[in-house]
Amino acid sequence: MQPSPQTYARTGGVLYLIIIIVGLFGEAFVRNRLIIPGDATATAANIRSMESLWRLHIAAELFLLICAVALLLILFVLLQPVNRDLALLAVFFNLISIGLEAATTLYLVGALFPLGKTGYLKAGYLPKALGVLMQIAGLSYLTNSFALVLAPALANRLFPAILIPAFVGEASLCLWLIVKGVNVSKWQEQVSAGRFSGA
Questions:
Q1: pLDDT, tens digit (0-9, with 9 covering 90-100), for 62-73
Q2: Is 95 left (phi over 0), alpha (psi -120 to 50) or beta?
Q3: Are 115 and 48 in contact (CB under 8 A)?
Q4: How many CB atoms lie within 10 A of CB 179?
Q5: Distance (Å, rounded) from C-alpha 141 to C-alpha 135?
Q6: pLDDT of 23-36, one tens digit each?
Q7: Three-state SS for 92?
Q8: Per-residue H/E/C for 35-46
Q9: Residue pair 71/5 in contact by the 8 Å Cβ criterion
Q10: Dist. CA 74–CA 13, nearest whole Å
Q11: 23 alpha carbon, distance to own chain's centre
């Protein structure tokens, strides 16, 4: 059975409320509490002392974005009778915005690494650029997966655009492995360190 417009509207309202609550939580109870403008040392100390809160904030932000994708579908369904082309254009702009927000949110995880052990900084035996490209590829696939579930017709239109960054990332890693391989000495160092540490 096709849900009624009222069902879509109420579901969208609940999703919007979740987004507002999660957004206020992040702003009032995490960022304002942990981040000290102009004082990176104090900020780092706060994040280190309340790492669980910082991680909860990151998870909450990702959950917010999932809700935003679902809300976007609902708004498209509700608004397309007015002007389908404009509603679809809004979907495209919002998907780009959500993708950028997701990438930005994932960078918050990086704030945790310099605060702990720094051994990982010496463990890279592949270029960092490849890691960034593969993250973008993964985000593209994730966006496509959500679109397939929430709006199959939209997924068919998005797929060519989503395929490009995914192809660039995976092709770059593939070619690098074929042509350059890995830095064997660093790889062996990492393997040895893992053995001695019990990893």
A1: 899 999 999 888
A2: alpha
A3: yes
A4: 7
A5: 10
A6: 898 888 888 888 88
A7: helix
A8: CCCCCHHHHHHH
A9: no
A10: 10
A11: 16
